[in-house]
Automatic annotation (TrEMBL):
Keyword Hydrolase among record annotations: yes
GO molecular function terms noted in the UniProt entry: serine-type endopeptidase activity
Gene3D superfamilies on file: 2-enoyl-CoA Hydratase, Chain A, domain 1, 2.30.42.10, 3.30.750.170
Enzyme Commission number, as recorded: 3.4.21.102
SUPFAM superfamilies for the chain: ClpP/crotonase, PDZ domain-like
Classification via PROSITE patterns: PDZ
Gene: ctpB_2
Coiled coil: none
Keywords assigned by UniProt, alphabetized: Hydrolase, Protease
Pfam annotation, one family: Peptidase_S41
UniProt cross-references to InterPro entries, sorted A to Z: ClpP/crotonase-like_dom_sf, PDZ, PDZ_6, PDZ_sf, Tail-specific_protease
GO biological process: one example: proteolysis
Enzyme class at the top of the EC tree: hydrolase
Protein name: Carboxy-terminal processing protease CtpB
Length: 418
């Protein structure tokens, strides 16, 4: 593992390996189930919050307790369990303890206000639910051109114990619709996708890649010393090279990936594996962040070109996920520990839903599709103003994500060799 971790002060540091208790990871990735509120929140400084920031909802899992309570993306949270001191500055001084304790509790009372200014107070209970990672899918038409759009939050496994899952069925239906409408370009929205199953990434890559790539290298593994010595990286082995086998009839001219600093692992694998085949016809659109002084900076993706497989510890309910492999694309590139750098950065619109053509990141992709150039800086400044962001200086977004598999790339036993 030492050889698969980035160097800090000349020494390797593993910031990825972890222990999972009670099968939480296998439940979320292999089975698509989660026990939580299904709500992901963050702090955002707006024109009305001054130098402070308010707590907002950035995403809600379908079928989750939060979704059933009517909580949606862009809602502002006013109080939790009657506590109204949930602003950024107050919570930062307390290491966000109130927020984290609430999100990890069994139940809570939450008051929130929608974008239509409707205030609601609900008690919600953290419970088991089947979450649907598909946030939106549609076909957008402009000037006679049909552009597919697909947003999803996790690479949930498409097979579980060799049995097709609901995830596979969803993707099959979506791509069948794309093929039926003869889309020529595709926007893949991975802005909050922290990864998941490697096999799911392979499936999507085979759906998106040109047919001419069939038989050519998708990616190869770089293993630690022990796995190399055991011969696992040989052709036909469990970690042997993976080649493309085109699925379906999509013939795409361009593909756009929408990313943030939360885009990680299997998401980065998909982007990196397709780049050698689309070259300049593949664009990555990211977001602006802030440095420690609140100045605007370009955000890369998370930076996790390594992954795990599960090792169960006997006589316990503990699984070890140790950093065991790195992936390299057909150009032998995979050293993006500092993240993948977007071709263009813009402002995300937290107050518009996934798939809305006027949302900042989607609008950037559609403008490039139509004109072959990016939106002007004047247009982006106007967009930031509409989206309530403070342009001159804003607090670095503080996201709070309780999902256990955040930022993961997992290789599960599927009964097939690679």
């Amino acid at each position: 593992m030492m050889g698969l971790t980035p160097l800090v002060n000349g020494s390797p540091v593993d910031r990825y390996s972890f222990i999972d208790r009670q099968g939480t990871i296998s439940g979320e990735i292999e089975e698509g189930v989660s026990t939580s509120y299904g709500m992901y929140v963050f702090y955002l400084q707006t024109s009305s919050s001054g130098d402070n920031a308010d707590l907002y909802v950035r995403m809600v899992d379908k079928n989750s307790p939060a979704y059933q309570a009517g909580i949606r993306r862009g809602d502002r949270i006013l109080s939790i369990n009657g506590q109204t001191n949930i602003d950024y500055k107050t919570q930062q001084s307390q290491s966000f303890k109130l927020i984290n304790d609430a999100l990890n509790s069994k139940s809570m009372t939450i008051k929130f206000v929608s974008q239509t200014s409707v205030t609601t107070e609900k008690q919600i209970v953290s419970s088991l639910y089947n979450f649907d990672p598909i946030l939106a899918s549609k076909v957008i038409e402009q000037n006679g051109k049909k552009i597919g759009y697909l947003a999803f939050s996790s690479f949930v496994a498409i097979y579980n114990n060799r049995i097709p899952t609901a995830m596979l069925s969803s993707f099959e239906n979506i791509f069948s619709q794309f093929e039926g409408q003869n889309i020529t370009e595709l926007i893949v929205d991975l802005r909050y996708n922290g990864g998941g199953s490697v096999e799911t990434a392979e499936y999507l890559a085979n759906r998106i890649v040109p047919a001419s790539a069939t038989g050519k290298r998708m990616y190869s593994y770089k293993l630690n010393r022990n796995l190399q010595a055991w011969g696992w990286a040989k052709e036909g082995g469990e970690f042997g090279p993976v080649n493309y086998a085109k699925k379906g009839t999509l013939n795409l001219n361009k593909v756009y990936f929408l990313v943030t600093e939360s885009t990680a692992s299997a998401s980065e694998l998909l982007i990196n594996s397709l780049k050698p085949y689309f070259k300049d016809n593949q664009k990555m659109i990211g977001t602006y962040g802030a440095d420690s002084r609140g100045n605007r900076v370009v955000e890369n993706t998370y930076g996790k070109p390594v992954g795990f497989f599960r090792t169960s510890i006997p006589n316990t309910d503990v699984d070890l996920y140790a950093t065991s492999f790195q992936t390299m694309n057909a150009d032998n590139y995979g050293d993006y520990f500092a993240g993948l750098t977007p071709d263009r950065s813009t402002y995300e619109d937290y107050f518009k839903d996934f798939g809305d053509p006027q949302e900042g990141m989607i609008a950037e992709a559609l403008h490039y599709s139509l004109n072959g150039s990016w939106l002007s800086s004047t247009s982006k400044t106007a967009l930031a103003s509409v989206n309530k962001l403070r342009n001159e200086k804003y607090i670095n977004r503080q996201s709070i994500d309780t999902r256990a598999h955040a930022n993961g790339m997992y290789k599960f036993q599927t009964g097939r060799s690679k």
